[in-house]
Write a structure and sequence with these properties.
homodimer; alpha/beta; TIM Barrel; 2 domains; seven-stranded parallel β-sheet; two-stranded antiparallel ribbon; 17 helices; 9 strands
């Protein structure tokens, strides 16, 4: 039964035989078999073709004893259906042709209908579930309202988020109308993944760490709260961000059974701050995977020690695995988590 | 007497008539008169020509009621004398031709002799002191050992600091030998500025926020500590970083009469955490300067309220002012700090 998986049990803070582990971006470029497929298809083609998305989702599961799969997709996939021109330019990442800046831009955005707009995602989830045959649970995900909104405003990546904050500070009524629309999209997009068979959901608020706690409270908290309320409690939820040390309590308030932690904060301290009535995920620095395996082992042990064997810790990197990480080091880390946390030998 | 300046008093946590304010990068591209000069000279030429460096240092003082000047310079200026090939490529920022990666690279680095290698800096400081005629104090500065070292390793800016952390984790003995050399350069460079007439010093550890507290403690703290010990207590010192919420107590331990705070942390909480036996500087989000003046005023008031009128707060942005900020908003902010903190009308 899937409810017996150690990843799902840890999300609910139930005792587990040993610490579950998965990696953000585990289906990705650090894997040769991913790069081979990617050489033949564009990134969006891979996302939008269920067979390809399903295949790369399970690739890391063939190599490693991971405790969860995460569907191969991109947080920007719902944007075109909202009326946003999205392209993945070669080597440049996402480019948005019509960034949102004004009340009119916001008014022009349309809600999404997942069955019409992102049917490939549902199909990919079903295919992965069949292939996994309940060996490990499958995680679905979405960008959080703030992170999606700032992508749409900036028109791509950003360093200082000048346009996002300028809209937020200068035209709060436009900001709130915009976030309201994005929030509805996120809820519909996540519910669609539950219906298709996602067994847990992660909300990525990857960029929220550029905000002060007061800004988070005023401009973000109401929307992330609505997302967690809107998707209900049928599957466990993970609330992730980076650079969020000063936002952790507010993120917990917004929702999530599990709060993601990057490496900037000592896990034990963050968990103490959050309270032990919530699970935590993290928090190895992804760059540690470039080090020697003795160093990796030592750092894995530090994270496990910091979690102290308390039920409700999911091991993960503090952010996504990088494309140039030696693949054997990823495998070594996963095995080390299991070995050091006392997994029964198979 | 310069010891009566409210900026210097605040550094020593003495009572002041109202809150002193200056801005990181206040001598810079947001000023038209800076851009006019810059159009005629390269960036390095501006740094290395005392008349030009002195001129741009005082430019913002002619416009605004700032409480301190900061010498126009760049944290990378000592690098060429160490044997590093440094260029400022047009529009690309600094580029380092021979990044340090190995023990041999470290062995090849040479100490600097400020009088031979950066005489222009001393001359610029003397010229500014003469022109300011003790109206406001002049701040000198340096990059901190970690931030300088990571620049030299990455060969320029970086997003994930893979090479820096790989060296740190993988070759700790090379890391420590490298930081040892950089630390000596920083001490010599800062002492030279005191001798020339700098009345306060800021140590910029701008990038240190990418580290976990344990990494900071092991790989950075010993060197920043040596810098503060090495420069002594003849002038007040400011220890600055961004993204440093989890590092603040360790940064205080390393040294500095004043600890810099970015906007990610509520000032009152950070000060409580640090203890009130140290002064603080900050912490307005630089992007607030793009908002309407009513918003700027409200945000200035929030920071002042958070400081609670306690002696030892220097108002500043949480990071440098951006080149596209409307110059009148910078002036408005400076006046608002003085007005709202009760400066006597002049």
């Amino acid at each position: 039964m899937s409810s017996e998986h150690r990843f799902l049990k840890a999300c609910r803070r139930e005792p587990v035989d040993c610490t579950p582990v998965w990696m953000m971006r585990q289906a990705g470029r650090y894997l040769e078999e991913y790069r081979e497929l990617r050489a033949k298809h564009s990134f969006l083609e891979m996302c939008r073709t269920p067979e390809l998305a399903a295949e790369v989702t399970v690739q890391p599961l063939r190599r490693f004893e991971l405790d969860a799969a995460i569907i191969f997709a991109d947080i920007l996939l719902p944007l075109p259906a909202m009326g946003i021109d999205l392209e993945f330019a070669k080597g440049e990442g996402p480019v948005i042709g019509n960034p949102v800046r004004t009340a009119d831009d916001v008014a022009a955005l349309t809600p999404i209908e997942p069955e019409r707009d992102v049917p490939f995602l549902s199909e990919a989830i079903r295919m992965v579930r069949r292939e996994l045959a309940d060996r490990v649970p499958l995680i679905g995900f979405s960008g959080a309202p703030f992170t999606l909104a700032s992508y749409i405003i900036e028109g791509g990546g950003s360093r200082n988020f000048v346009d996002t904050k300028t809209l937020m500070y200068g035209r709060p009524e436009v900001w709130h109308a915009f976030l309201d629309k994005v929030t509805e999209v996120v809820i519909a997009y996540l519910k669609y993944q539950i219906e298709a068979g996602a067994q847990a959901l992660q909300l990525f608020d990857s960029w929220v760490g550029i905000l002060s706690p007061r800004d988070y409270e005023e401009y973000v908290l109401p929307y992330s709260t609505r997302v967690f309320e809107g998707i209900g409690h049928s599957v466990p939820t993970i609330h992730f961000g980076t650079d969020t040390t000063t936002l952790l309590e507010l993120m917990k308030q917004a929702g999530g059974d599990v709060i993601g932690l990057d490496w900037r904060v000592e896990l034990s301290q963050a968990w103490e701050l959050l309270g032990h009535d919530v699970a935590v995920q993290g928090n190895l620095d992804p760059i540690v995977l470039y080090a020697d395996q003795t160093v990796i082992e030592e750092r894995v042990k530090r994270v496990l020690d910091s979690a102290g064997g308390r039920p409700g810790h999911i091991f993960n990197l503090g952010h996504g695995i990088l494309p140039t990480v030696p693949v054997e080091n990823a495998g070594f880390m996963i095995d080390a988590v299991h070995r050091l946390s006392g997994c029964p030998k198979e």
